[in-house]
Amino acid sequence: MAFVAGVFGSMLGVGGGIIMVPMLSLAFGVPIKVAIATSIVCVIATSTMAQTTFVSRGMTNVRLGMLLEVATSVGAVAGGVTAVLIDGRVLQLGFAAVLVYVAWQMNRRGGDVTPVRTGVLEAAYYDPAAGHDVEYGVRRPRLGFVLSLGAGNISGLLGVGGGAFKVPIMNLLMGVPLKATIATSNLMIGVTAAAGAAIFYGRGYMDPYYAVPAALGILAGARLGPRLAVRLSARALGIIFQVVLTVFAVLMLLRGLGLGL
Amino acid sequence: MEPVERVIRGILLCGIALSVALMAAGLVLGVARGAGLPRGVVPLAELPRGLAALRPAAYLSLGLIVLIGTPFVRVAGSLVIFVKQRDGRYVLVTASVLLVMCLGVALGKA
Predict the structure, then answer these.
(1) Which of A44, A212, A218, A219 to mutate to test the interface with B (most CBs of B within 10 A)?
(2) Measured between beta carbons, which residues in chain B are less than 8 angstroms from residue A52?
(3) What is the CA radius of gyration of chain B?
(4) Mean pLDDT of all residues in chain A?
(5) Which residue range forms the structural domain that includes residue B77?
């Protein structure tokens, strides 16, 4: 199971905590906090292993990732403030609605964004599926930064990594091609997860009985995922991503309605 | 690859190798002692003694700590490279990320 999670998570730039946590706690009877701690370790393993491939292929936009990490990590730390202001259930339902909207937008667009050179955080990578280099610049960096604050905040609140938000923000809004988006989101989720994992470790929720086999499985799976992501066409990746987003949305909807987790 | 990308890749590979080696050592020790996987991690303060006593839980815990620490080291490593390149803006950006990560850990403990 951890192997499969590693393949999918690293292929799509998401951590998969939203699937991992209910699966561990419902199917394996793991206490919820231990399940969250295990899932966070898995996110770190996914990100770390996948980056060794993505970075060497030049797909990760390190500078863009660093810049948005400021926003997502500040947002995540500030999560506690928002928790007082908004009801958790309202947030979950809102989260589900946003995911559905994003999946629909990606579907409507059909293919990947058309790369434009903007002079901002420009980068290029070789796309083996398309058979040529893709050069792109980043659009709307300020708006992307502000929305990333929100994404970090929500992910901090709901205990999910937030890759599902980071990918659409970079791809749809900032005009970063899907493959570079996935690689960069994958880099970013490791940062948020590491801070969270350190806290869970200190509080004694980390259990090697679950975390070690899960981490090893993820590390193996996350060697394969990025290779698939590199080879698949951006269109196919987009479709897989939409399906996963829809699954996430359904899970969040169930949670928000108080069914399941 | 850019210098910063080379350094990031190097740090991540070392982190994975070290963490997997420690976890494997913990698993081997666990099997050798006929015990299954231990429950619960070893608190930081007791790690050195556990490692010296070849306790499987200590090795598994340290493996997890190395894995969790790798993204911290990755950000710190990028910071060093940006400082070397005198890339003022990204020194600031990367330092902020590191600061917020540590702040998050500190706040979470309270």
Answers:
(1) A212
(2) 9, 12-13, 16
(3) 17
(4) 84
(5) 3-109
Range scoring the smallest mean pLDDT among A247-251, B9-13, B60-64, B106-110? B106-110
- When divided into structural domains, chain A yields a total of 1
Number of CB atoms found within 10 A of residue A161's CB: 33
Token pair of A170 as six digits: 């970079």
Which run of H or E residues covers position A123?
Answer: strand A123-127
Residues 39-58, chain A: which have Cβ within 8 Å of B?
Answer: 41, 44-45, 47-49, 51-52, 55-56, 58
Report yes or no: A31 at the B interface, CB cutoff 8 Å.
no
When mean pLDDT is compared across A40-49, A110-119, A167-176, B74-83, the lowest value belongs to A110-119
The residue that leads in pLDDT, A85 or B81, is B81
pLDDT at res. A204: 85
Inside any domain, residue A261: no
- Environment class of residue A208 by beta-carbon count within 10 Å: exposed (0-12), middle (13-18) or buried (19+)? buried
Contact B13 A215 (CB under 8 A): no
Give mean pLDDT, residues A52-67. 94
pTM reported for the whole predicted model: 0.89
Query: Which residues in A lie closer than 8 A to residue B108 (C-beta atoms)?
Result: 195-196, 198-199, 202-203
DSSP state of A125: E
CA distances from A5 to A99, A166, A214 (A): 20, 19, 9
Task: List CB contacts (< 8 A) between B102 and chain A.
Answer: 195
Chain A residue closest in CA terms to B35: A209
* H or E element at residue A134: strand A132-136
Ranges A176-185, A248-257, B58-67: which has the least confidence: A248-257
Are the C-beta atoms of residues A32 and A159 closer than 8 Å to each other?
Answer: no
For the ranges A17-21, A74-78, A242-246, which has the lowest average pLDDT? A17-21
| Domain assignment of residue A152, yes or no | yes
What's the total number of domains in chain B?
1
What average pLDDT does the segment A40-49 reach? 91
H or E stretch at A97: helix A88-109
State both tokens at B57. Answer: 């839980």
Give the C-alpha separation, A158 to A141, whole Å: 25
Domain of residue A112: give its range.
Answer: 2-256
